[in-house]
Amino acid sequence: MKVKVEVRGLQLPGARPGAAVEAAYEYADFDLPEQELFLPGHGLCASCTIGVIARHMLKVLGPDTIVVNPTGCAEVSTVTYPRTNWAVPWIHVAFGNGGSVASGIEAAIKVLKRRGVIDPNRKINVVVFAGDGGTADIGFQALSGMLERRHRVIYVMYDNEGYMNTGIQRSGTTPLFASATTSPAGKKIPGNLTHKKPMALIAAAHGIPYSATANPAYLPDMLEKFRKAAEIDGPSFIHVLQSCQPGWRFEPKYAIKVLELATETGYWVNYEIEDGKFRITVTVPRRKPVECFLKLQGRFKHLGKEEIAFLQKVIDEDVKRLNEMAGGEFIGPLDPEAKC
Amino acid sequence: MTLQLELGKVRQKRIALTGNHAVALAAKMARVEVIAAYPITPQTPAVERLAEFVNNGELDAEYIPVEGEHSALSAVVGASAMGARVFTATSSQGLGFMYEILPIAVGLRLPVVMGIATRAYSAPINVWGDYSDVMSMRELGWIIYMVSNVQEAFDTTIQAFRVGEDPSVHLPVAVAYDGFWISHVLQPLEVPEDEEDVMRYAPITRSWRKLDVDNPASLGAVGTPEWYFEIRYAAYKALEDSIKVVLEADALYGKMFGRSYGLGSGYKLEDADVAIVTYGSIYGLARKAVDALRAEGIRAGALKIRLLRPWPADFLRRRLDGVDKVVVVDRAFNHGGLVGPVATELAATLARPIYSAYATIGMRATDSAALKKAAERVAKGEVEPMRPFNIGLRGP
Amino acid sequence: MRIESVWIGRGGQGIVTAVYIVAHASIADGFYAIANPEFGAERRGAPVKAFLTITDYFEDSPEPIKNPDVAVFLDDKLIDTMRVVVEAVKPGGYVIVSSGKGPEEVAGIIGRKDVNIAVVDGIGLALKHVGLAVPNGPMVGVFAKVMGLPRLESIKEAIASQLGKAVEQNFAAAVEAYKTAVVIPAAEAGSAKISVEIPTTSAFLTGDYELVGWDQIPEGGLVYPGSSLRYKTGSWRVEKPIIDHSKCIMCRRCWLFCPDDAVLEVWREAKGPGGRVVRVKAIDFSYDYCKGCGICAQVCPTGAIQMVREL
Ligand SMILES: Cc1ncc(C[n+]2csc(CCOP(=O)(O)OP(=O)(O)O)c2C)c(N)n1
Ligand code: SF4
Ligand code: SF4
Ligand code: SF4
Ligand SMILES: [Mg+2]
Q: From B54, which residue of chain A is nearest by alpha-carbon distance?
C-alpha cells in the first residue's frame, strides 16, 4: 500500500539545515506492504512502542525473516505459550546471547544452502531484536563476537533505557540522572550517575558495513535504515530509541510525542555510519531545550535547575561532536526560547 | 535381510589417535554442519582438529570461532533449531560458562552433540581430568555417556547423533571422556573407511527442525505455571524413554561396525562378593584390581557405567543385586552430600547401603593397586558403608 | 476469624500495593494476614489478581482462594471477563467494585442478590486526590468500611510504609471512599452451596486457550502464527478512540503509530454529492485489541480522533 507519511523534521540527504522545525514538514512516499507479520493480541503495555518498531521492522524485512529475541519485554509479552504474535520464525533462547544464537542460525543457513536443503538463491534475513540490557550489558560480548565474525545478521536494539521486564532497573543505556529502581532519585544521589553507552558507535568501531540510530517517531528514516540493513552483505546494527510508559513515566498518549522531543532536543540524534561514512539522517534546524523532553517524564521529575543545565551541557557537547563527525551543523543550535 | 548383508560389509581400518582427535574424526565422519567451540584444556585439540578439517575442505561445515562457551552452545542451539547437525565440545570452566544454556537445549528439544573432555572445576584452577564438570549437569535433561577409551569415544560420538536426533528423543547428548587419560592418550582404534557407512548409520533427517521460513513457528515461548510443567515433562519423559533408543542405536552400531557397549559393562560379577563400580578410563584399572583380588582368593568383580543419563537402573540392579558389597569409586566430590555422586544414585537404585570412595580428584594419579586396596578394605569390613573414604588423599 | 478476599485489577492499578496495604494494616491491628499477589508476564493494563487472607491465628503457606468472602474489582470492566470470581463469592459475602456507573447499574451487572455489593468511583476519587487513575487507595478504604477492618489509622501507617510518598493524598482518597461508598445489602440468603470455584490457574486471565495434557503440546512448546488473535486485549481499555470521519484526511498517521495494530482501514459508505451513496476508504478501530493508549488521537494532525471514557 502506498502510504503518505507526514514527517516532521525529516530532511532528505544534503538538505540545507536552517529551516524552522515547524516548517520542516515533508512528505515521503513509502511502499509499505499491507501484510502484517506482527499480529495483534500481545501483552505489551498500552502505548508500548515495541509494537510499532516490531511491526514496521517486519513490514520492511518481509516473511523470509528469522527473528532472534533475547529475554526482555518484547519476548515475554509476545510469545507466551500458547500464543505468538510473530508470523515469521522466531526464537528465544536466553537473555545474553542474541548475537551468538543469530550467528548459529546464519551459519546454518549458509551450510544448508550449500547442501541443497535451502534454496541457495533465497535471501533469508536473520534479525536479532534485543533490548538495551540484552545488548549493551549482558549480551555485549555475544554482540561483539557476532559483529567481529561478520555474520549477515541485522541486529536491532530497541532501547527503552532500562531493564523494563524486571521492573525498571538501570542499564548501560539509562541516561544520566534518570530515576530507575536500582538508581532511584534519592536524597543524596539524583538517580543514575552514568552516561548512555553509544552503542551504534561501538558497533561501528567493529568496522561493520552499517550501523545506525533510529527513532520510530521518524518512521521513514527508521524504515529506510531497516531496508539498508537488509541489503547489506554483512552485519548491521540499528539502535532504536523506544519509549516505555511505566519506565519513563509519561502519559500513554505521549509515547510518540516524547520520542519526537528526544530528537527535537538533540537528546537523540538519528545518524548512520555506512562503510565508515558518518551521516546525520534527520536534521534538526534549531534544537528545543532538553527540558521539553524531560518534563514529560516522571523519571526526571526530581531534577532541579542545576541538573537540567548540566544535562543541557552534556547534550550540547554530544551534538557538537556528532556534527563534527558529520562535517556540518546538521543538528542546529539550541533555541532557548523554543516552545515545547 | 539385505540391510544386514550390507551392514556386514562395512570396511574399517585400524589407526592410532588421541581421544580428542578420535572425537573430532567421529564428528567429521557424521558430517556435522555447524560447529561452534571455544578452546579449553583438555578439549582444545578436538576443536582444533575440526577447524583443520573445515579449512582443508575435508568437511563442508560452518565453523564459528565464538568468543566464549556461552556463545558456543548458544550458536549451536540456533543452528540446530534450523535443522542443522551440530557439534561443540568443552571442559569444566567452559561447561560452567555455558551452564545457562544447557537446560535450554533440552527444553527446546534440540539434538546438540557435545564432547566433554572431563576436567576438575576451579578453584584451585586445575586443568586435569576429574568428573566434577560432568556430575554438575546430571539434572538438566541431557543424555550423558561416559566412555572408557579412545575407540569407545569415537564410536559413542557417532551413536550420539543417531540417538539425539531420533524423532522420539530430540535431546542434546554429551559424550564425556577423561581429560588427558583419554583426551590425550594415543590408542589404536578401528574406524570405517567410508564416511558413507557412517551416514547410512546416522542419516541427517532434520526431524528436529523448528525454524523454517516456509512453516513459521515460535520456539522458546514463556511457559507460565499453567504450561511449564507439561512442556518440561515432555522432555523429562523423552529422556526417560530414550534408553530404548540408546540400546537400539548401540545394537545397530554393533551390527554395522562390530562394536557395541550397552549401558555399561561388568567383569566377573557373576559370583562376586565385592564389586568395584566406576566410570571412565579407570575401568581398566578396576578390572586389573579384580584379577589381583581373585588371585588372593577374594571374589571380586567390576562394573562400569557407560550411560549416566538416563540412569540405567534396571541394568545396574540386574548386575549388582547378587553382589554383597558394592563400592563406587567416584571421580568428583559430592560436596556436603552423603556419599559420592554416583554412589548416592546407586545406593538408591539397589535400595541398600553401599560403599563410597573418592579417587582421581583433580586427576590425582591412581593405579590398580590402589583400587585393589580399596576393595580389600571394603571386603574385610575396614570401612563403613555410606561413609565415603578417599583413595590417595594425604592427611588424616 | 478468617476473611478470604480476591482482588482483581489491571497491571498498573496498584493491586499489589492494595493487598500489601490491607495486609500491613491488619497486621498493625493485631491480626495475621497473607497477601499473595500473582505475578505474570503481563504488562501494564493486563488483568491481574491477588489473594489476601486475614486471620486471627498464624498461617504460613499461601493457598489459592477458591470461594472468597470478598471479591474486589478495581475496574468494573473486568466483571465480565472475571465473571467466575463473582460467581464464586460465598453467599452473604461481598463484592466491592470501583465504577463510574451508578450503584444500581453495577448491581445489575453483578447479577447476584445473595451478596452484599459496595460501589465507589475509585478512579474518580484517585484522580481527585492523587491525580492518577490508580484506584487502589479508595478500594482499600471501601474494604475497611464493609469489613470493619483494618482501622483507618492503620491504613495510613500502611500507606506510609508501602508507598512512602503522597501519603496524605492517598489516605484522603481512602477516607473519602470509606465515607461515600454505597453499600447494597444482600436481598436473599442464597443457596447454601455454590458450585463455582476460582480456577487455580491464571490462564483464564490471558485468553480462552484450552489447557491440554503434556502429550498434546508441540515439541519444545512451539507456537504457531495466528494464535495471538484469541488474546483479546480490548478489555484492558479505559478510554476508547472514536473517529469523526468528516475531519479525517486519511493521512494514516494513526495506522502507522498504533502499537497494537488496532487501527484499520475499512470501506465505508458515505453520502456523496446529490445524495448518492459512495464507498470510501475510512479509518476504523479494532476494539478487540485496542488498549486505549490514545496515541492515535495524539498523532492525528486534524483532531479527528477523540478518546472517550468507556463505562
Ligand atoms: C542471565 C539472566 N540474568 C537476568 C535475567 C533477568 N532479566 C530478564 S529480562 C531482564 C532485563 C531486560 O532488559 P532489556 O534487555 O533492556 O529488555 P526490556 O525488558 O527493557 O525490554 C533481566 C534482568 C535473565 N533472564 N537472565
Ligand atoms: S514496561 Fe515498557 S518496554 Fe515493557 S512492555 Fe511496558 S512499555 Fe513496553
Ligand atoms: S488507542 Fe492506542 S491501541 Fe487503540 S487504536 Fe489508538 S493507538 Fe491503537
Ligand atoms: S491520523 Fe487522523 S487524519 Fe490521519 S488517518 Fe488517522 S484519523 Fe485520519
Ligand atoms: Mg530495556
A: A111
